[in-house]
TrEMBL record:
<dbReference type="GO" id="GO:0009307">
    <property type="term" value="P:DNA restriction-modification system"/>
</dbReference>
<dbReference type="Pfam" id="PF01420">
    <property type="entry name" value="Methylase_S"/>
</dbReference>
<feature type="domain" description="Type I restriction modification DNA specificity">
    <location>
        <begin position="215"/>
        <end position="395"/>
    </location>
</feature>
<dbReference type="GO" id="GO:0003677">
    <property type="term" value="F:DNA binding"/>
</dbReference>
<keyword id="KW-0680">Restriction system</keyword>
<protein>
    <recommendedName>
        <fullName>Type I restriction modification DNA specificity domain-containing protein</fullName>
    </recommendedName>
</protein>
<keyword id="KW-0238">DNA-binding</keyword>
<comment type="similarity">
    <text>Belongs to the type-I restriction system S methylase family.</text>
</comment>
<dbReference type="InterPro" id="IPR052021">
    <property type="entry name" value="Type-I_RS_S_subunit"/>
</dbReference>
<dbReference type="InterPro" id="IPR000055">
    <property type="entry name" value="Restrct_endonuc_typeI_TRD"/>
</dbReference>
<dbReference type="InterPro" id="IPR044946">
    <property type="entry name" value="Restrct_endonuc_typeI_TRD_sf"/>
</dbReference>
<feature type="domain" description="Type I restriction modification DNA specificity">
    <location>
        <begin position="16"/>
        <end position="180"/>
    </location>
</feature>
Length: 415
């Protein structure tokens, strides 16, 4: 392929003629982290940054370890350092990184981490998040050991603009997008917290919506509907083919309303007797690794022909006597009141299960039907706002990826 005028091929791809492809070892220092003994861990002391302190390309302080030991000044982190995970049991976590800022002053980092120290830290932070860096990580990872050595890290090549002005402009443009992403993350967290608080108030009757005063009634789920099983008698060859669709285990676990874009194919012949999923059905996972996650509930809100349920879940079809709103019951069962009920019914030691019989014996508190509908509408409205915010965040992430591809390779210049 013919190069554009003013560009050249390099070890990191096509870059402008006046850019360099530099090994990291020529522009900074890679530092090995602190090795400490369990006896040196304290409730307070010097915070040791570990892999868990890097989340989504930024510092996170939700899971911290503190030590009381002598620490060389050289491995106390400084603003502008880049913290990198270089050893981990999970191959996918190797190379995840974050830029050290003022919040981390006075902290050190653990032996499974490295710090890259350079005057170009703000620019390199974005390079470390890019495909340029990740490609070299994959090329250097050992076949059996998930580790990047200091020698390997120092050999990684990165594209470097010739002037400080251009480097600063690129870093600033990408950091501005990071700031927007961080703000969107904060708004999403606040909205999720609002939803949890609203559910706690409305689904327990602690707060009543205006105009509703009727008594709440205790009902067993067996009074409200009937259960049915998922697919039976299927082999591996039946999945991924055929014209029928089925709802996966994870679709039930992760969604209050079934995601109709995430169905998978299954072959179901006309002679088979299988239970179809209908609009308005509630779907439950019958097992989980923890009792708190047994019998999550998801509503099938649309009519979809030839739709079935995976064999690890079961369905619940509401009676036609209009006692309960399906979406309200879904929120109720997924929220704290429902979780407490299902946790008590879960059976097992290493994996927990709930039977259809036990589910039908579970009792729930129901407000009048019109109040159920009103509560579900409030919570659904918050969910709609969350979906819009998450879509905006995902779009912004995609924009940043495109900007990185343009700016970090010099395809688009900011001079």
């Amino acid at each position: 392929m013919e190069l554009m005028p003013g560009y050249k091929r390099s070890d990191v791809g096509v870059i402008p003629n006046d850019w360099d492809a530099k090994p990291l070892g020529e522009i900074g220092d890679s530092l090995i982290g602190l090795t400490y003994r369990p006896s040196e861990v304290r409730a307070y002391g010097t915070l040791v940054l570990r892999s868990s302190n890097v989340q989504n390309g930024a510092l996170c302080f939700d899971d911290n370890v503190f030590v009381d030991t002598d620490i060389p000044e050289r491995i106390m982190v400084r603003p502008g350092d880049i913290l990198v995970c270089v050893r981990n049991g999970s191959r996918d976590l190797i190379g995840k990184s974050a830029l050290i800022d003022e919040r981390a002053v006075g902290m050190t980092f653990g032996a499974f981490m490295a710090v890259f120290r350079s005057e170009h830290g703000k620019l390199l932070h974005h390079v470390f998040q890019s495909g340029i860096f990740k490609k070299q990580i994959n090329e250097h990872l050992g076949a059996t050991i998930n580790q990047i050595t200091n020698k390997s890290l120092n050999s990684f090549k990165i594209p470097l603009p010739p002037t400080n002005e251009e480097r600063t402009r690129i870093a600033s443009a990408l950091s501005d997008v990071d700031t927007l992403l961080a703000r969107l993350d904060q708004v999403i967290v606040k909205k999720r917290n609002l939803k949890q608080a609203t559910m706690q108030q409305l689904l327990t009757g602690k707060t009543r919506l205006p105009g509703f005063f009727g008594e709440w009634q205790k009902k067993s789920l067996g009074e409200l509907g009937v259960t049915y099983g998922g697919l039976t008698g299927k082999t591996k060859s039946d999945f991924g083919v055929g014209t029928a669709k089925y709802i996966t285990f994870m679709n039930v676990m992760t969604n209050e309303v079934i995601d109709c874009t995430a169905f998978e194919q299954v072959n179901v012949s006309a002679s088979e007797t299988q239970n179809r999923v209908l609009r308005g059905d509630l779907l439950f996972n019958g097992s989980s690794e923890t009792p708190e996650e047994v019998a999550f509930c998801s509503l099938m809100a649309k009519e979809v022909p030839d739709l079935y349920l995976n064999s690890f879940c079961f369905g619940f079809r509401l009676f036609d006597d209009q006692q309960v709103d399906g979406l309200f019951l879904t929120y109720y069962i997924r929220a704290n009141p429902g979780r407490e009920i299902m946790k008590l019914l879960a059976q097992g030691s290493t994996r927990y299960n709930i039977s259809k019989t036990a589910l039908c014996e579970a009792s729930v508190l129901l407000p009048p039907k019109d109040e159920q509908v009103a509560i579900a509408e409030v919570l659904s409205g918050i969910d709609t706002e969350l979906v819009a915010l998450e879509a905006r965040r995902n779009k912004t992430r995609n924009i940043k990826q495109a900007m990185m591809q343009e700016l970090l390779t010099g395809k688009t210049r900011l001079v």
